[in-house]
Amino acid sequence: MTIIERLQQHKDLEPHKMALIVDDIQYTYGELYDAILSVGINNTSRIVNLTQSKKTLNTKILLIQELSFVEQLTQWLGALHKGNIPMVCHNEMDTAYVDELARVIAYEGVPPLADFGVLTSGTTGQPKPLWRREISWRDFFDIQNDIFHTNKDTKIFLQGSFSFTGVSNMVIASLWAGGTVVTTSSLRPSRWMQLIEEYNVDHIYALPTKLRLLVRHCKSKLSSIKYIIAGSQVLDRQLMEQLQHICPDMEFILYYGASELNYITYCTGKEWLAREGTVGRPFPTVKIAENDNVIYVTTNYRIEGIPNTYTVNDCGYIDSDG
């Protein structure tokens, strides 16, 4: 079942179930699916035509330059539905860089099985395009949702552009499960807390930098939060203890991943505190090996154009417990 077919199934079974809340605007699964079907290519998107394609000669790369989260999401899904290949540009990318990105893509082409593109964050230079098949996310959703305790009753809060792989993956995985995504364009932690309390949110997905902002500005308990999902590499004990104080019923789920490889390992907050610095154990179906302190990952859920076993040159070791 494709992502679009799954959303159609949710629409058919529970059309009035809340799918997406963006500030004060709410979208049911019925409304979200109808919005996807009605999406057209507008003048904020840059079209890169491909001369060779796995589908038709008319397949287009769609560089989505919308700043609105709803538009980013619906245009991305709408392009998938129409058989085009979408990629959401980061909000801060200027016209000159988008032009250069389009030129590079037109010159290099895309892998023959690619369904969509993602951009690296750009923390080590200019953002670079990576290409994925839909199944590289879709077939892992049930695995990650089980680890993250995400299901049809989940209400997850996150904040950020759909262009960032972690955000887009978590949003689509939550919709795949039939849950509710709550987000905002606001950078104010007070607004985040207002939405969390108003909609009785039970999951938070956030980078540690945003969790630190939440801690700094939170003056009351967020008692509805059951899980906080975050990257494990840049957390610290003080932040985890502060978050546990304001979310007393919360369990941490910490992960390590890479844009090229999807999710790799995970652990709970208690496990991290017991063995500070660990990135946990591999996700089901993912295999880890170490050679000269370099970590190699074997997974089917990777970008196009790299081998089954791959390294992003992260260093580490495997302890006696694996």
What would you say this structure looks like, in words?
The protein is 34% helix and 23% strand. It is built from 11 helices and 17 strands. The model has no long low-confidence stretch (mean pLDDT 91). It is an alpha/beta fold and 322 residues long. The chain is globular. It has helices spanning 3-13, 29-37, 69-82, 95-108, 135-138, 141-147, 165-177, 189-198, 208-217, 237-246, 269-274; strands spanning 18-22, 25-28, 45-49, 60-64, 85-88, 116-119, 129-132, 155-157, 180-183, 203-205, 227-231, 251-258, 262-268, 281-282, 287-291, 294-298, 309-310. The protein has 2 domains: 39-133, no CATH class; 137-284, Rossmann fold (3-Layer(aba) Sandwich), CATH 3.40.50.
What descriptors fit this protein?
Rossmann fold, 23% strand, 9-stranded mixed beta sheet, alpha/beta, single chain
